[in-house]
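The protein record passed on below.

***
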Amino acid sequence: MTNSPQARRIPYIHQNHGEERYDEFAWLRDDERSDQDVIDYLIAENRWCEQQLAPLSALQETLYAEMTARIPGNDHSVPFLKAGYWYQQRYQQGDDYPRWVWRKDNSQAQWRTLLDCNIRARDAEYYELGALEITADHRYMAVTEDYLSRREYTLRIKDLREQKWLPTVIEGLSPSIVWANDGQTLFYIKQDPQTLLPWQVWRHQLGNDPSQDTLIYEEHDDSFYVSLTSSSSEQRLFILLDSSTVSEAWAIDANNPHLPPCCVLERRANHEYSIDHFEEHYFIRSNRDGINFGLYRCTQDDTSEQNWHEVIPAKKDRILEDFQLFNDWLVTEEREQGIIQLCQYSLHNGQRYTLPKQAENGVVWIGHNPEVNTTRLRFGYSSLTTPTTTYEWDLNTHQLQRLKQVQIPLYDEHAYQSDWRWLTMRDGVKVPVSLVWRRDCLEPGKNPLLVYGYGAYGAVLEADFSFTRQSLLDRGFIYAMVHVRGGGELGRAWYDAGRLQYKMNSFNDFIDATQQLLQQGMGDSKRCYAMGGSAGGLLVAGVSNLAPTLFHGILAQVPFVDVVSTMLDESIPLTTGEYEEWGNPNIKEDYEVIRTYSPYDNVCEQAYPHLFVTTGLHDSQVQYWEPAKWVAKLRKMKTDDHQLLLYTDLDAGHGGKSGRYQAYVDIARECSFLIGLATGEWPKS
């Protein structure tokens, strides 16, 4: 389109492994976010985007009204009990953020406000509460908060007895924090100021200036991420170190926090484990005997592997994903053929019970259970048609009680149909697909089809509920999730089959599954759309190069598209920690693999689908210049007159706007793009 913004071209050449890569739009990178030429270009793109979408403004307003009307005005979580106090999260009508309240475990006690995030977020363009932790004596509360959407958190501490914030302010942190049992010692994680990698664990003593804090652990391998957690026994605090394929945990005595941390089990190649402490034993979920993990127990005094005792063996066809300990019971999340099942095991005789399934096509998970001295398990359930539901299961009597289901105004669950299908790919592998549609709108071969995917980091794309999706379903869309290789739906082998040198499987799965759905009548081939965010944005952007005629339109949200250049730059946040996911392009073999699919490097002179691309100026995970450069290059190379839109949120980062209501401004805009295309009412020729 002749009036669209045109980024200026400045010659720049990357030279790697004997290849020259021309990058005329490299100038769009501005680490400080202060170059006026860059800002002016992004603003120009935003104006163009708003101008082109202007005919859809009434639809956007309608969608926003629909979506926000489905948000329960006054809402609250199911209260949970911890150390003699009940806690609850509450929303009031019109609130963007929750209010945390608490009261003593006493029927006469009154609920009191612990933290009102609306007050904390006042006058801020963005707000996120990273963590809220309270001392064992309930005297102090520590919080980590992000006001920039760059995942750089600030620590603050409040004296709950005096109802005043202490002067302590520590910036540049990862969100996780833990208190020792003395109620005076707090542990936190500093991030590298350049790469934002969490790498140092510090100990803070109440009353001391942060300059007096003590460094207790530093991670020197920048492929590892550092986090903190506490054990079920409340006797151990853990420093957790994880890369894509290796784990290590260090334990801190919660009663003697000034003692140095001890390594529970040293890292070794391809060994992943997670850990808990209970009744003077460590429980360790490990892949040492199989890629789908088993569970082991050892004494706290001798954690060497030869002294591990098998609790649950590793199985070939069942993945042990998580576990939680109670006084007499062990509860697990186990996934088979992509479907999660909750199981309980007796800690005394190993007897196994399976909790009843809520439905075939949903997702179930262990809920928040901070007390181990109980027989009641909280768990959650959701599906593509069922809103999030909280249940309580009695581990002794096997009685089930529904505590709460999110109430969606004017929603009829029975009006919608979901399905789980296995489709055969070009190499013979069967890939699962989750589908949902409105029953009375289904017309085989005639519905618009929206295909969604992710396929990275071993993350599971769960088939759970979304009330924003309802606006598309009610307008006749069929929604499909393709669980491509690279995700974790079928275990570690599924993840390995879609990363590093096998990454092309993710793209092929997405293409093949879409084609088969259309062949099965699950959508109109002329009204087929793709959507993905972050690594899923890489997926759909890559597909736009590989199969440009398959989709009528593509929505790429904060897409990771400049893969070669990003993975070559160790100064960019998250790069080195991603080598085990994408490869290290400093190595020629890895470079050549990445080069084959990197969307920015493979833009060519051809027709592309209608494209709507989003990003955030302060995104620390996918830097804004990746989608900006990609759009600029597409404008130069593509041979069609289809819409190409870039919208940059100048106040937000990777997750977009914060708050219950503000996020739907962006979602309504994106959905209007899809609906406008599907109805043929936009764009006008």
About this structure: The mean pLDDT is 95. Residues 36-53 form the longest helix (18 residues). The two ends are 11 Å apart (CA to CA).
